[in-house]
Amino acid sequence: MIVPLLILCTAMLQEPAKDSSFFQENDGKIAIAAVAATGFTAIFDERIGRWARQPSVQGDSSRHNFVDAITVVNEVPLTLGALATYGIGRLTGSSIVSDIGAHLSESLIATVAIDETLRIGFGRVRPRSSPDNAFVFRPGSGLTHFDHRSFPSLHSAVAFATAAALSEEMRVRDAPARRYLEPALFVAATIPGFTRIYLDQHWSSDIVAGSFLGAYLGTRIVRYAHSRRTMVDRILLHAYALPTDGGVTVGFSFKQ
C-alpha cells in the first residue's frame, strides 16, 4: 500500500499549470494512476485483511484500544477544526488564518460530500461483514447499511485532503518550513488508513482510493481558490465577527 501512496504524493505535489482552471491537462494521468494503484492493491485485499486479523497483529486489548482511540480523528473533528480556524481568523482579524481555515473547510466539506456519494453508490461491503470476499458490491445499499460503505475510505480521504490543502497553502505562501512540514503531513495522513485496516473497517484498496480522492480535492480546491476569488471565498472572507459587550456581532463587508 505504501507504493501507491508514494505515487500519489509525486502526482499531487507537482507545480500547478499556468492555466487556472479547476481541471488540468494532467488529470487523465492522475486518474489512470489512481485506478491502476487501486486495482493493483485490490489484488491483495483479502491477503492483507487476513494478515491484519492475526492474533499477533491484533495484540491485546490495550493495543486495540489505542488504535481505536487514534481512529476517532476523522471527518468530524477535522472539519470542525477547519471551521474553528476560519472562525478564529475572522474574530482576530487575521486574513491568513481566515484564508487557510476557509479553504481547508471547503476542501473537507467537498471531500466528505463526494466520498459519501461514492460510498453509497458503490455499496462495497466492509471486511468485517465479508471477511473472505473483498469484492461484494451492493450498489446504492450504502444509503441504509453502514457496513456497505467501504469504498472509498472516508478516513483516508479527509486525512489526505487536510494534508494536501495545508501543503498547498504553504506552497502559495512559499513558507520556509514547507520542505519539512509537507512530508510530515502526508506521512501522518497515512495513519488513519492503517488503523482502519487493523480495525477491519476497510480493505486496503479503499484506503488507496480515498487517499487519491482527498489529495486531489485538497490540492485543487486550494489552487483554484488562489487563482481566482470564488463566490464561496467572497462570502466567507468578507464575513466579520466583532466581539461586543453583549456577545458577538456577525455581518458582511464587501469592501476590499
Which key phrases capture this entry?
Vanadium-containing Chloroperoxidase, domain 1; 11 helices; mainly alpha; two-stranded antiparallel sheet; 64% helix; 256 residues
Please state the average pLDDT score.
85
Total strand segments = 2
How does the overall form come out from the CA principal axes? Answer: globular
Strand order, biggest sheet?
1-2
Q: Roughly how many Å apart are the termini?
A: 47 Å
State the CATH architecture.
Up-down Bundle
What can you see in these coordinates?
The protein has about 260 residues and is mainly alpha-helical. The chain has a single domain, classed as Vanadium-containing Chloroperoxidase, domain 1, CATH 1.20.144. Helix content is about 65%, strand content about 5%. It contains 11 helices and 2 strands. It has helices spanning about 1-10, 25-40, 45-50, 55-60, 60-70, 75-90, 95-120, 155-170, 180-200, 205-225, 230-235, and strands at about 240-245, 245-250. Helix 2 packs antiparallel against helix 10. The longest helix has 28 residues, at about 95-120. The radius of gyration is 20 Å and the shape is globular. The termini are far apart. The model is unreliable at about 250-255 (pLDDT under 50).
